[in-house]
Design brief:
35% of the residues lie in helices and 20% in strands. The chain is an alpha/beta fold and 338 residues long. It has 2 domains: 59 residues, DNA polymerase, domain 1 (Orthogonal Bundle), CATH 1.10.150; 269 residues, TIM Barrel (Alpha-Beta Barrel). The strands form 3 sheets. It has a 10-stranded mixed sheet with strand order 3-4-5-6-9-10-11-12-13-14, with helices on both faces. A two-stranded parallel sheet has the order 1-2. Strands 7-8 form a two-stranded antiparallel ribbon. α7 links the parallel β10 and β11. The protein is elongated and about 70 Å long.
Length: 338
């Protein structure tokens, strides 16, 4: 298999050009063709000589892959399936909403974190996505020109594939790359502290933390990560970091009937998040096979939301999207594997 150029940083492409006996500026030209001009073939790189293009064609590939399947929901959401090696698949969701459109991308094939409510966790960790495979979900998206926001909330734990995630963020936000504002990108984690700390130091993108309950004993039953990286330690890191006025921290909170939707949970959330400038995103649970958990009913969710607001916490209720196409992460790729 040839080495792919897509997913490399500008300095890597300059170094690659020099190794091939080409001038450094050819590396910068290749960078521009890949990310700014979004060229998908060597033939189209017209600023390079024919000899240079032929040299590249003989030794490298661009490295882009189109989606192999697409499902479209009645609400406009689309779920794309990409291959990630022999018999392996990842999912990418495109979610249009009035004046904005959000792209939800994956960072791993499967996931090894074992969260009880997550279908991707059933697959286990099958592999890490390269930087190119992460960005391919954006570059090869038919609607890529309409994307206004990107969230790293698809399959996998981003900070369990930290190096590739950080490079992908650099390419997305650098002037020589896609030049997106980091304020349009959010990376979600279940609380892998070392990766979270490095991300906070090296990136300016927003951070989202999967919380789901403020009580350690309950969180251990839902999310094994609580045993290694307790929520209280995650919050200590958050309190110790200066987010400034532009960078946002949010907490994801899936609502489970009778498990995390009581006034006791509201009070504890208000206590542990005291003086952290944040928002809580409430999420209805999308049922998955062989899991007995159920979503809280709408009246309970709305009461929970209002109770949090009364405590002074900005709280939003995320609209459920793509229910008719199994848009919850992991469902479609699991079916495809089977």
């Amino acid at each position: 298999m040839m080495e792919s150029l897509f997913g490399k940083k500008q300095d890597e492409l300059v170094e690659l050009a020099l190794r091939q006996g080409l001038p450094a500026y050819n590396g910068r030209q290749i960078t521009e063709w890949l990310y700014k001009k979004r060229m998908t073939s060597f033939d189209g790189m017209s600023s390079l000589s024919k000899k240079t293009r032929e040299l590249l064609r003989q030794n490298y590939e661009i490295g882009l892959q189109p989606p192999v399947k697409v499902w479209q929901s009645a609400d406009g959401t689309k779920k794309y399936l990409f291959t990630a090696g022999e018999g392996r698949f990842i999912e990418t969701a495109w979610i249009p909403d009035r004046e904005r459109a959000t792209l939800c991308i994956s960072t791993q094939v499967g996931c090894g974190m074992g969260c009880r409510f997550c279908m991707t966790a059933r697959q286990g960790l099958q592999g890490q996505l390269s930087c190119g495979e992460i960005l391919n979900q954006y570059q090869s998206l038919p609607e890529r020109e309409k994307v206004s926001n990107i969230v790293y909330m698809g399959m996998g734990e981003p900070f369990d594939n930290l190096a590739n995630v950080l490079v992908s963020l650099e390419i997305l936000t650098s002037g020589w790359g896609y030049a997106m504002s980091p304020r349009r990108i959010t990376v979600s984690t279940i609380g892998v502290i070392p990766g979270m700390q490095e991300f906070l130091e090296k990136s300016k993108c927003h951070l989202a933390i999967s919380l789901h309950t403020p009580f350690a004993d309950e969180r251990k039953k839902l999310m094994p990560v609580e045993n290694k990286y307790p929520l209280r330690e995650v919050l200590e890191v958050i309190r110790g970091f200066d987010f400034g006025l532009q960078r946002r921290i949010s907490f994801e909170y899936i609502m489970f009937r009778g498990l995390n939707d009581t006034t006791r949970h509201v009070s504890e959330l208000a206590r542990i998040l005291n003086k952290i400038r944040c928002r809580i995103n409430l999420i209805r649970f999308h049922p998955i096979p062989e899991v007995e958990l159920e979503s809280s009913d709408d009246s309970t969710i709305l009461s929970f939301q209002q109770a949090l607001k009364n405590k002074g916490i900005i709280t939003t209720l995320r609209a459920s999207r793509g229910m008719d196409i199994d848009a919850a992460c992991g469902l479609l790729s699991t079916k495809e594997i089977k």
